[in-house]
Design goal:
By secondary structure, the protein is of the alpha/beta class. It contains eleven helices and twelve strands. The strands form two sheets. Strands 2-1-3-5-6-4 form a six-stranded mixed β-sheet, with helices on both faces. Strands 9-8-7-10-11-12 form a six-stranded parallel β-sheet, with helices on both faces. Strand 8 (144-148), helix 7 and strand 9 (173-174) form a beta-alpha-beta unit. Helix 1 (16-26) packs across helix 10, helix 5 packs across helix 6 and helix 5 (100-112) packs across helix 10 (246-261). Bound molecules: NADP nicotinamide-adenine-dinucleotide phosphate. The site of NADP nicotinamide-adenine-dinucleotide phosphate has 28 residues, from helix 5, helix 6 and helix 10. Residues 61-62, 64, 100, 103, 125-130, 149-151, 154, 195-198, 200, 207, 224-226, 245, 248-249, 252 line the site of NADP nicotinamide-adenine-dinucleotide phosphate.
Length: 281
């Protein structure tokens, strides 16, 4: 019986089952990890199911913020950012944790062989994933953590949160239509973190206007989405260094696995599980 699940809406694309089951199997723990489509309206009811039937859950779009409110307890890092991507269920008590921040930090270091400290980091997006990862990167010593988001109020909320948690960090916000500010932020950024859900569907457009990008940009692009997207194609065309979200998924998943089992999974095994896992299975 499945004792662990990944849930989201949409969820069919998820590679978490392949990756997590590979880790469980390599530790002699079978293949206990499944996948379920759960809408935001269904989340409270799902929590009651999980409380009685499951040991652990990973949550993706659009559940991370509501899950922080529904959890009985939060770990320090989840409380700090108000976002939850992992549930640990023990004796009917649901603890919410956030492993996205450590996942992105480790992925940036692995993909670009570089440190976070002193860097200017620009987020495109201000949802649950941006919330968890921006607060974490600000705490890793980033010089600037700024936000471009369709809904300005959400960007401002995250910017204020980063400055509250790490007073030394600088942070500004813009909407994608603010060409001057967006160009300024893109010119001085060391990393652009694509953290919107634009790109999850195959025919999705770019999350920012194409005219803002050019060959002279010194930034590196990290797209949190792990299948091909418009921004990955554009980065390749312009010769901008880029990486997709695969390594972040693996690292945040490894941190969830460790929380559930107390064991450090083999990352090579999880990478193979990611590649072999058929989306939606
Ligand atoms: P979320 O809370 O639903 O936030 C979605 C974000 O995308 C918001 O900033 C939203 O802007 C923006 N957005 C949505 N539709 C848009 C549109 N048509 N035009 C412009 N902006 C739009 O989702 P999330 O949990 O933060 O996830 C965001 C992304 O991160 C997803 O693609 C997810 O797959 C990825 N992710 C990857 C990993 C990994 O391990 N690789 C981990 C976590 C998340 P508004 O604020 O204006 O609504």
């Amino acid at each position: 019986m499945e004792k662990y699940l990944v849930i989201g809406d949409p969820i069919g694309h998820s590679r978490s089952p392949g990756m997590q089951n590979a880790a469980f199997e390599s530790c002699g723990l079978g293949r206990p990890y499944g996948i379920r489509h759960v809408t935001l309206d269904e989340l409270p009811e799902f929590f009651e199911y999980a409380r009685k039937n499951l040991n652990g859950v990973n949550l993706t779009v659009p559940h991370k913020l509501l899950a922080a409110q529904l959890s009985d307890r939060l770990t320090g890092r989840a409380e700090c950012c108000g976002s939850v991507n992992t549930l640990l269920i023990k004796d009917g008590i649901i603890t919410g944790d956030s492993t996205d921040g450590i996942g992105l930090e480790e992925a940036l270091k692995y993909c670009f062989d570089d440190e976070i400290s002193g860097k200017n980091i620009l987020f495109c997006g201000a949802g649950g994933a941006a919330r968890a990862t921006s607060v974490h990167l600000a705490g890793c010593g980033a010089k600037e953590v700024s936000f471009i988001n369709r809904t300005l109020s959400k960007a401002v909320e995250l910017s204020d949160l980063c400055k509250k948690v790490t007073p030394e960090v600088t942070s500004v916000c813009a909407v994608p239509e603010d060409e001057n500010m967006c160009r300024t932020l893109l010119e001085r950024a060391d990393y652009l973190i694509q953290a919107t859900s634009v790109g999850l569907k195959p025919d999705d457009p770019l999350p920012l206007p194409e005219k803002y990008f050019h060959k002279g940009l010194k930034l590196k692009i990290f797209d949190t989405i792990y299948h091909p997207t418009s921004i990955q194609r554009l980065a390749a065309e312009l010769g901008i260094l880029w990486a997709n979200g695969k390594e972040m998924l693996i690292r945040q998943g490894a941190a969830s696995f460790e929380l559930w089992t107390g064991l450090k999974p083999d990352l090579a095994v999880m990478r193979r599980g990611f590649e072999e896992g058929t989306p939606g299975k």
